[in-house]
Amino acid sequence: MDYKYIEQLLERYWECQTTLEEEAILRTFFRQEDVPASLLPYRQLFLEEDAMASEHLGKDFADRMLQLVRQTGQTQAAEEENPSAGLRLAEGYVCKAQRLTVMRRLRPFYRVAGLVALLLGIGSAIQQSFTEEDEASVPQMAEAAHIDSLQHITISSPVEQSAALSPHTSDTLNAQAR
């Protein structure tokens, strides 16, 4: 038997292009007992889809949900009247409600701000200690440089100073005097 139509439907099914009628054709095909071996891996998928489609909510589901909503509404009203009492749920579990104040909500930000302030303070103290050492050594170095420059200066006559500055001029003066 030729199963090209079923294979085409499967290809369209994987591309999400099948209609509801075509998907029903695939389901009825895979419900059969004699499915070819090449299409057997897909059989379980369609059989499980049928099994899940048969599962429905019970008829009393809506009633049970409405009852839970009413109970929750009543317990919340009781909570508003007496906030120190816990919120009692249907199973008997008690949930203590706590009011969050602005201070409590901002507590993590206060911690971060404190940490940043602490780090900035430590960094400032370290920077100041290094700059104080540098400033203390600057006047000593300036004083030492001043003393060195004074030691190089010698007191002499103006002629000797000019001769020391320009040796060629003194040679010309000596040559003219001869």
Which terms would index this structure?
two-stranded antiparallel sheet, 72% helix, 3 domains, 178 residues, mainly alpha, 2 strands
Describe what this molecule looks like in 3D:
This protein has eight helices and two strands, in the order ααααββαααα. The longest helix has 46 residues, at 107-152. β1 (87-88) and β2 form a beta hairpin. Helix content is 72%, strand content 2%. It folds into three domains: 4-54, no CATH class; 61-95; 100-178. It is elongated, with a radius of gyration of 49 Å. It is mainly alpha-helical and 178 residues long. It has a two-stranded antiparallel sheet. The mean pLDDT is 75. α2 packs across α3 and α7 crosses α8 (167-177).
Q: Compute the separation of the termini in Å.
A: 139 Å
Q: What percentage of residues falls in helices of 4 or more residues?
A: over 70%
Backbone CA Rg? 49 Å
Order of helices and strands: HHHHEEHHHH
Portion of residues in beta strands equals under 5%
Judged by helices, strands and strand pairing, the structural class is mainly alpha
Brief write-up:
With 178 residues, this protein is mostly helical. The protein has three domains: 4-54, no CATH class; 61-95; 100-178. The chain has helices at residues 4-14, 20-31, 40-54, 61-81, 102-105, 107-152, 158-165, 167-177, and strands spanning 87-88, 94-95.
